[in-house]
Amino acid sequence: MLDALRAAGIRNYTIFRDGNRMFGYFEADDLSAAGHYLAQQEVSTRWQDAMAELLERRVPDGGPPALEEIFRLD
Fold first, then answer.
1. What is the rounded distance in angstroms from the CA atom of residue 55 to the CA atom of residue 13?
2. Cys bridge to 61: 33, 39, 43, 51, which one at CB 3.0-4.6 A?
3. 3-state class (DSSP) for residue 12
């Protein structure tokens, strides 16, 4: 899965935990292309299936939907 994320152009991927809540952050130059690439990878399907039992709902094979950016401190 790590190789697939890198091949998709995902970088700076961090997962945070607060109690039983998790929040992930990553960067990609082309989020749409990264999602399309991951959706085609069999390892992504296996990973999402394995993680589904730990989550409230299964994440799509192409990764989670993008969140709306409302602030950035550069």
1. 19
2. 39
3. strand
Task: Evaluate whether 26 touches 13 at the Cβ level (below 8 Å).
Answer: yes
C-alpha distances (whole Å) from 66 to each of 19, 48, 59 are 23, 17, 12
Give the predicted TM-score (pTM) of the model.
0.79
Amino acid at 61: D
Exposure b/e, 1-37, CB count within 10 A at least 16 = b: eeebbeebbbeeeeeeeeeeeeeeebebeebeebbeb
